[in-house]
């Protein structure tokens, strides 16, 4: 059994849109409401983004507020810093998260630190909109990298898993006075809303989904499975199958990497006493370690009968799908991890 | 055009390049190739010109649109295609894929990050200086790459150090949906060479002879003095990648350019009308090339993907396994 992340919308029929359209709609409404919002990046204007997640914005707001740039990430990420200092609210698109290297300096030394260095006098209401996810596109085009951003102080980091959240969290990201790294999932962006088991309804009007609230997308009593982004769907399918092995899994969609919603996780762990983290990102020094250590620190060693994690074991994403399947969590491997967790308790 | 052998070889190589990439297109359709496959169909004359000017010991750092550069560098077709098809018999055992082709012995590498090949070529050029040999390092890039910071840093350093670096820009007028005219502060990229005090020239990249001569001049300058830049004009015939709907540019312009400005078709007409090669010879040559590529494709198709148990290999040269595996 699965529960929708937004039960209030269950009545209206799902619209036939995909996640990138939901994101574009969130952006459009935010730009209508606030003319300080500008969108900058490669292929965001004429093409409306390589996935279509800025489609329609050029027509609605013109080429100054929706700026197609040369392939100059360092320059336009730095531009966001200056724009923010001048009172604008830039949304910059780094086409794939994998390309962040060429402008990471501006991201972690300027965007993330200036609010602190200025003694709180200068805000950086910048959204760094980008796409992650392992999609069979090999080592330089299939990373998720949220752990990298999570490590750098001063950045909110979010990664929605469904159409409803994608629109509402984009709106909230633009409205936030903190810099937000907004990581879409390449494998989800073109999926139709109606194909989602949860969060399929995307209202036409503006709404926010809070940036720092995890969602229980499937209640269960035996094991708390915390995951996010593209893995949520796989986790739900695996959780449904795990019933046959006698494990009743509660699936939590983290939604926000920074900050982590400990309240939702704590409530779940109080019930299940077992934590499994499923993370598409590299496991080492990342989100899974943070979640497990954080849970132990907060709730005490004695509060948990099991902790485990399943994710990319620290391997560049290989090109051949046979190899990718070995290292990127999928339905089958998540089910195995659940069964293992069930057996070890 | 008084060297029939040279012209036949040029044409043969360009047809081979075309057929090679057409074979790759079938791999996208059959889902044997994943991710965004970028072909250089329409850009064969530049790669063929490159092939004429690159020595075995020279280095070449290429981009996401790299198959023809690999052929120009003399990488055997079978392991090359096998890698593009993600097979265990591939150049990199299926670990790299079509965007990440590496051949250490032939000093060939690629990157999927725009602009990132330039500093790598700089390293090859400096290595040549350290060794004291006369090899040249080539960076082949698209017109979009020159707007990335790495271009400026590389050009400046290469010039300061007087390194044997040849930068060939394939100006196909588009960087995904952004036209060259909207992205460059200068009307020509060749003129940016002035800023680095190096020679730069623009050439018709559909003309294999003119392009070969321009690259030849750049190479001669590189071997004797320091870096040089060649901007070869061309047009991207297909979408940015296979699957790109390509709605951002005029379809009539595209149809026009692909029908009247195809370098392979142009050269064929030139050779036939100039009396260099007769129709029968051209056809024979074309069918030989097609048969050769068909054979490679069939062989590649029969190969397996790497066994999934090998996914942990190669993370570290020492054999150390992935960080938390
Ligand atoms: C640093 C970086 N930014 C963006 C991209 C996405 N991207 C891949 S190819 C490309 C366009 C490249 O244009 P150009 O250099 O002209 O080469 P072409 O594709 O036309 O051959 C872009 C924007 C990338 N791979 N790396």
Automatic annotation (TrEMBL), chain A:
<dbReference type="Pfam" id="PF02779">
    <property type="entry name" value="Transket_pyr"/>
</dbReference>
<keyword id="KW-0670">Pyruvate</keyword>
<dbReference type="InterPro" id="IPR009014">
    <property type="entry name" value="Transketo_C/PFOR_II"/>
</dbReference>
<keyword id="KW-0786">Thiamine pyrophosphate</keyword>
<dbReference type="GO" id="GO:0016491">
    <property type="term" value="F:oxidoreductase activity"/>
</dbReference>
<feature type="domain" description="Transketolase-like pyrimidine-binding">
    <location>
        <begin position="17"/>
        <end position="191"/>
    </location>
</feature>
<protein>
    <submittedName>
        <fullName>Pyruvate/2-oxoglutarate/acetoin dehydrogenase E1 component</fullName>
        <ecNumber>1.1.1.-</ecNumber>
    </submittedName>
</protein>
<keyword id="KW-0560">Oxidoreductase</keyword>
<dbReference type="Pfam" id="PF02780">
    <property type="entry name" value="Transketolase_C"/>
</dbReference>
<dbReference type="InterPro" id="IPR029061">
    <property type="entry name" value="THDP-binding"/>
</dbReference>
<dbReference type="InterPro" id="IPR033248">
    <property type="entry name" value="Transketolase_C"/>
</dbReference>
<dbReference type="InterPro" id="IPR005475">
    <property type="entry name" value="Transketolase-like_Pyr-bd"/>
</dbReference>
UniProtKB/TrEMBL annotation, chain B:
<feature type="compositionally biased region" description="Basic and acidic residues">
    <location>
        <begin position="303"/>
        <end position="315"/>
    </location>
</feature>
<dbReference type="InterPro" id="IPR050642">
    <property type="entry name" value="PDH_E1_Alpha_Subunit"/>
</dbReference>
<keyword id="KW-0786">Thiamine pyrophosphate</keyword>
<dbReference type="InterPro" id="IPR001017">
    <property type="entry name" value="DH_E1"/>
</dbReference>
<dbReference type="InterPro" id="IPR029061">
    <property type="entry name" value="THDP-binding"/>
</dbReference>
<feature type="domain" description="Dehydrogenase E1 component">
    <location>
        <begin position="14"/>
        <end position="307"/>
    </location>
</feature>
<keyword id="KW-0560">Oxidoreductase</keyword>
<keyword id="KW-0670">Pyruvate</keyword>
<dbReference type="Pfam" id="PF00676">
    <property type="entry name" value="E1_dh"/>
</dbReference>
<protein>
    <submittedName>
        <fullName>TPP-dependent pyruvate/acetoin dehydrogenase alpha subunit</fullName>
        <ecNumber>1.1.1.-</ecNumber>
    </submittedName>
</protein>
<dbReference type="GO" id="GO:0016491">
    <property type="term" value="F:oxidoreductase activity"/>
</dbReference>
<feature type="region of interest" description="Disordered">
    <location>
        <begin position="303"/>
        <end position="325"/>
    </location>
</feature>
């Amino acid at each position: 059994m699965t529960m929708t992340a937004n039960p209030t919308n269950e009545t209206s029929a799902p619209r036939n849109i995909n996640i990138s359209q939901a994101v574009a709609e969130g952006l459009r409404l935010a730009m209508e409401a606030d003319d300080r919002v500008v969108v900058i990046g490669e292929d965001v204007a004429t093409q409306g983004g390589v996935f279509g997640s800025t489609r329609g914005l050029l027509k609605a707001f013109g080429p100054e507020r929706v700026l197609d740039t040369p392939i100059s990430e360092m320059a336009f990420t730095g531009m966001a810093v200056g724009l923010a200092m001048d009172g604008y609210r830039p949304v910059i698109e780094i086409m794939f998260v994998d390309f962040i290297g060429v402008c990471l300096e501006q991201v972690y030394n300027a965007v993330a630190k200036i609010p602190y260095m200025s003694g709180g006098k200068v805000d950086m209401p910048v959204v760094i909109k980008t796409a992650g996810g392992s999609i069979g596109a090999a080592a330089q085009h299939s990373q998720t990298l949220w752990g990298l951003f999570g490590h750098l102080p001063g950045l909110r980091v979010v990664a929605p898993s469904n159409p409803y959240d994608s629109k509402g969290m984009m709106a909230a990201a633009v409205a936030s006075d903190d810099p937000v790294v907004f990581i879409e999932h390449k494998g989800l962006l073109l999926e139709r809303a109606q194909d989602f088991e949860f969060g399929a309804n995307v209202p036409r009007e503006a709404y926010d989904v809070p940036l720092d609230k995890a969602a229980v997308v499937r209640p269960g009593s035996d094991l708390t499975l915390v995951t996010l982004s593209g893995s949520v769907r796989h986790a739900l399918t695996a959780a449904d199958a795990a019933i046959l092995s006698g494990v009743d899994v509660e699936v939590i969609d983290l939604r926000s990497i920074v900050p982590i919603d400990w309240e939702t996780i704590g409530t779940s762990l109080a019930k299940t006493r077992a934590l499994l983290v499923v993370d598409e990102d590299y496991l080492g020094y990342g989100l899974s370690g943070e979640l497990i250590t954080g849970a132990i620190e907060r709730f005490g060693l004695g509060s948990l009968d099991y902790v485990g994690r399943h994710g990319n074991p620290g391997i560049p994403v290989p090109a051949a799908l046979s190899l990718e399947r070995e290292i990127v969590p999928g339905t089958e491997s998540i089910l195995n991890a659940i069964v293992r967790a069930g057996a070890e308790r | 055009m008084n060297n029939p052998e040279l012209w036949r070889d040029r044409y043969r190589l360009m047809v081979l390049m075309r057929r090679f990439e057409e074979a790759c297109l079938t791999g996208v359709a059959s889902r044997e190739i994943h991710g965004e496959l970028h072909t250089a169909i329409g850009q064969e004359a530049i790669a063929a010109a490159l092939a004429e000017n690159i020595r075995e010991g020279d280095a070449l750092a290429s981009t996401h649109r790299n198959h023809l550069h690999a052929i120009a560098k003399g990488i055997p077709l079978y392991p090359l295609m096998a890698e593009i098809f993600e097979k265990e018999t591939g150049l990199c055992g299926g670990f790299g894929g079509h965007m990440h082709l590496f051949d250490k012995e032939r000093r060939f590498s690629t990157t999927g990050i725009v602009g990132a090949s330039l500093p790598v070529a700089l390293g090859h050029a400096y290595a040549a200086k350290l060794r004291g040999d006369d090899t040249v390092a080539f960076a082949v890039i698209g017109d979009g790459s020159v707007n990335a910071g790495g271009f400026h840093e590389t050009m400046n350093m290469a010039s300061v150090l007087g390194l044997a670096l040849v930068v060939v820009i394939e100006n196909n007028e588009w960087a995904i949906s952004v036209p060259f005219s909207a992205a460059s502060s200068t009307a020509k990229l060749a003129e940016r060479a002035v800023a680095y005090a190096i020679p730069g020239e623009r050439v018709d990249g559909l003309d294999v002879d003119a392009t070969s001569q321009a690259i030849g001049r750049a190479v001669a300058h590189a071997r004797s003095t320091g870096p040089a830049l060649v901007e070869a004009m061309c047009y991207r015939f297909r979408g940015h990648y296979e699957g790109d709907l390509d709605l951002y540019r005029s379809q009539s312009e595209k149809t026009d350019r692909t029908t009247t400005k195809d370098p392979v078709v142009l050269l064929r007409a030139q050779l036939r009308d100039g009396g260099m090669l007769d129709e029968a010879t051209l056809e024979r040559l074309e069918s030989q090339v097609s048969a050769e590529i068909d054979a490679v494709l069939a062989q590649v198709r029969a190969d397996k993907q790497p066994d999934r148990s090998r996914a942990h290999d190669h993370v570290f040269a020492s054999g150390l396994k992935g960080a938390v595996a």
